[in-house]
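Human: My hope is that you can spare some time for a protein that puzzles me. I am handing you a single protein, as its sequence and its fold in token form. Could you go through the record with me and say what the backbone is doing? Take your time, and here it is.
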Amino acid sequence: SGGEETLKSDINVNNNIMKLTGGYKYLPLGFFYGPQLDVYGGLGYHNFDLDTSAQDGFGKNSITGILLGTNAAIPLSREYKIFVQAEFMPFPRFTDEDNVYGSAKSVSAMELELGVKYQLRTRVSLDASVETLSRKAKFNGRFKEISYRDTFFKLGASFNF
């Protein structure tokens, strides 16, 4: 068995996300007490650096493109505020750096986050949210689809100055 490549039992993955955005914040009742709606756009770059294994269908690739998003926050009371954020790339581009997959026939990239903020002090809030990420590319070749999905639970604090 001279030319056969064995399947890998494990693989190293390093994912990087970079975004450059700008937008507009609409505050109909003021900064602290009313609802707020953010609309933004920019550029997004999602890099997936996997150990290359053409046999297993792993390789370095990235999804890039114009990024559009919105964020809405609605106060439930003086202390609590719920928020939802959604963003997507309308025309993403898939780049196959190791030529494992070939050119993509369709690509999608979306994010959704739902959460709550508790106003602890005037300039400090405690935050909790759930974020779901989905990036996918479909092909006509040997490998039909590559999909990156993840769900995060975030817990932290925000300091506003």
The two ends are 66 Å apart (CA to CA).
